[in-house]
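In the design runs reported in the main text, the only information available to the sequence generator was the tokenized backbone. The following block is the verbatim input for one such run; it is reproduced so that readers can re-run the procedure and compare outputs position by position.
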């Protein structure tokens, strides 16, 4: 997941890819709207590993870190563990590590934000 590329980028968590594969309407509406809006949809390397190994929800912190290193401000997820992270604490931790602040957001919430 390179930091170079389109300025409008979103990182996708593993469960969003599963939502797409399962044919979930909200996931497809999100994908279509943001691609049409010129966003690049990326996924951190650990997401690929989780897809291959089917070991889910073991790497949430690593996925957040990879998203921050790639300077992508939002990780799109439907994972309650990530959505319930204290945003202020996460932003402070990113700042202490000199990383881009990253937040987790549900695809439905992002769709509402652009409509």
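Verbatim output:
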């Amino acid at each position: 997941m390179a930091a170079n590329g389109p300025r409008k980028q979103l990182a996708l968590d593993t469960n969003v890819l599963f939502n797409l594969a399962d044919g979930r309407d909200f996931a497809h509406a999100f994908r279509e709207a943001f691609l049409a809006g010129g966003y690049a949809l990326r996924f951190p390397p650990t997401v690929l590993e989780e897809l291959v190994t089917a070991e889910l929800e073991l790497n949430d912190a690593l996925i957040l870190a990879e998203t921050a290193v790639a300077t992508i401000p939002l990780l799109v997820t439907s994972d309650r563990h990530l959505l319930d992270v204290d945003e202020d604490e996460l932003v402070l931790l990113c700042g202490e590590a000199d990383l881009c602040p990253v937040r987790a957001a549900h695809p439905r919430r992002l769709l509402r934000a652009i409509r």
